[in-house]
Amino acid sequence: MKTPAAQELLLKGRMEPRRLARRRFLFFTAIFALTSVAAWFMADLLWRDGLSGVEVALLAIFVVLFAHVATGFVTAVVGFYVVNRGGDSARLAMTLPPEQDFTLASTAIVMPVCNEDVSRVFEGLRVMYRSVQETKRLEHFDFFVLSDSNQPNQWIQEEMAWLELCKQVGGFGRIFYRKRRHSINKKAGNLGDFLRRWGRRYRYMIVLDADSIMTGRALVQLVALMERNPQVGIIQTVPRLVNGETLYARLQAFASRLHGEIFLAGLNYWQQHEGNYWGHNAVIRVQPFIDHCALPELPGSEPFGGRILSHDFVEAALMRKAGWGVWLAADIEGSFEEGPPTLIDAAKRDRRWCQGNLQHTWLLTARGFRPANRLHLVMGVMGYVSSPLWLLFMVLGTVHIGVGGGAYGAGVAPGPELAGAVALFGFTLVMLFIPKLAALAVALGRREEVARYGGRLRLLVSFLFEIAVSTLLAPVNMLFHAKFVLFTLLGQGVTWLTQRRGADDDGTDWREAILTHGGQTLFGLVWGVSAFVLSPSFALWLLPVVVPLVFSIPLSIVLSKAGFGRAFRRHGLLLTPEESAPPYELRRLHQNLAECYRHLPPLEPLRADYGLLQAVLDPYVNALHVSLLRQRRPTEESREWFAQLRARLLRDGPGGCTPREKMALLLDAESMMALHRGLWDSRAEDLADWWRLAMRQYNVLTVAPTTALYR
């Protein structure tokens, strides 16, 4: 039971300093003790006739890697303890007042998008709007779609979907759409532009991703928590993975749902008010965010310098530097997101995250950052650097064996040395698998939750299958991350690609899989054969690493199939509670999207430029588009250029213009009005065949899918 003083401190956004110091001392002492024991075992194995250069490197790398493993182990063990004693008494949700006493304030719900599935974006927004409306608190919330889309089709569909959504739900004056003219600094720049223009109108901002879904109750609770805790700057929820169709997506959703609770409880145990921000599904206090969280530009150029890609960790550190609390609210229900559907899509996302996290090395010694935030930055860097370190460790081990050192050099296996190696290997396995067993024990101890996982037997089968597949994927992801780190170190930056969120029945094709995993397969073959030549007994130890690499191509293809994912669901495997008993908002989203995707696309000759077609040809769409543009006064020189461009577009069709020229026309209100008049005033023989086909077929084509009326 918290004392009045402890309750008062929690309301101020922090725990009693002595109590927090005691928690952190126990937590990090346990990590140090485990790492010391493992380091002693490893040093004893290597220290026979003194340490060679290779052995010193092996020992140093091992200590770093084992400390990383020990951190995860201790986090899970502490989380298991916290969960089994009924939860942490010092968590922010404990300060939530009774629902009838909620006080709210003006809040902007913002969703930055860039070339996303328009139906998914606006149907998700519709569901959240209706859900907030049902809480009777809608007057406190405004919704913003902040577009950086650079494809004409996407842009026009977004405008049409926004208009139809506002008409259908009565959202004019509460749902807003904004398309930036210049997409500077990606998502962070998009949010920064919004805050400069409209931020001071709102006390809070809830940031979403394009695939985010939050229930109205969760949104209201976040704002009520902010009002209740005036010293808190950011509250981060834990979004649960939903709507996965492929086998890979279902595996990720099951694993994160089953194992996440104890890890999050352990994380919150030591970080408390010095938590982290993950960039979405979080509420932010706007004014301190504006005042203190402007991102610095790193020295040098990309990939290490320039603008920061992974902005969220840095913004949390800046908020804490200014004295505001940052909390993880893992017990706020109703926060969801969608994950990548395939292993290759996950790797593409990790490539971008890897560069962003490695940029944080510049900030590890930044003045004024709290130790906890520095640790968050280190953990983010280690999330990727650990992979090349593991790879280097195993390659050096192979070299060590090859030159005659270690327990398996020259085919010799001395008893004491072999026993020590086996003991260390077993100790490491315990550290890796005990957290998974602890998470399973927590789930099995809850009868109602077990039923939502499909029952005890199905839960156990799913658990074993997930362990087997994650073991196979570990070497594949190790090589992915090692490659990403290497490319970053060599100065190769990344382009910001739209994440594929949905799935199709075909999944990853053989060509893409071979191009992506072919190098891994070749590396695994060469490594395995080399190890066997050096020492057959050592090669047996490498089989769990080499075999997944050799078979990475078929493994990636099988995991990408939506048909396999649906088969597992039919048999009750890899179920999650959110899938077995989905909240109303997820059911509503699924029904609406199923209706949206029944619409047929336009004719093939028109599909590539259908958005431009609508904006020029349709008077309704043209008027809407022009009304949303910012009026500018072009110079005489630019007027002449636009006139020539308009004439070419009508004469030659969209194929005669580059993508940049099409976007320039769409950004110019005068040109869009002139194109609409010019198209309808021109004689048929003066127009390109493309425009004549468009004018004949437009009335029978399906307009933007989201213009239909849904619940």
Detailed description of the structure:
The chain is of the alpha/beta class. It has a domain at 604-707. It has helices at residues 4-11, 17-46, 53-84, 118-134, 152-169, 186-198, 216-228, 247-271, 286-292, 311-321, 343-359, 371-402, 415-444, 447-452, 456-489, 510-534, 536-550, 552-559, 562-570, 577-580, 584-596, 604-607, 610-617, 619-627, 636-652, 659-667, 669-681, 689-697; strands spanning 107-113, 141-147, 175-179, 204-207, 213-214, 232-237, 240-241, 282-285, 325-329, 335-337. Strands 3-2-1-4-8-6-9 form a 7-stranded mixed beta sheet, sandwiched between helices. Helix 5 (152-169) links the parallel strand 2 (141-147) and strand 3 (175-179).
Number of β-strand runs: 10
Span between termini:
46 Å
Sheet/helix structural class:
alpha/beta
Average pLDDT taken over every residue: 88
Strand order of the largest sheet: 3-2-1-4-8-6-9
Radius of gyration: 28 Å
**Biggest sheet descriptor:** 7 strands, mixed
| Overall geometry | globular
* Poorly predicted spans: 407-414, 702-711
**Roughly how much helix do the residues carry, as a percent range?**
55-70%
Number of helices: 28
The proportion of residues in beta strands is 5-15%
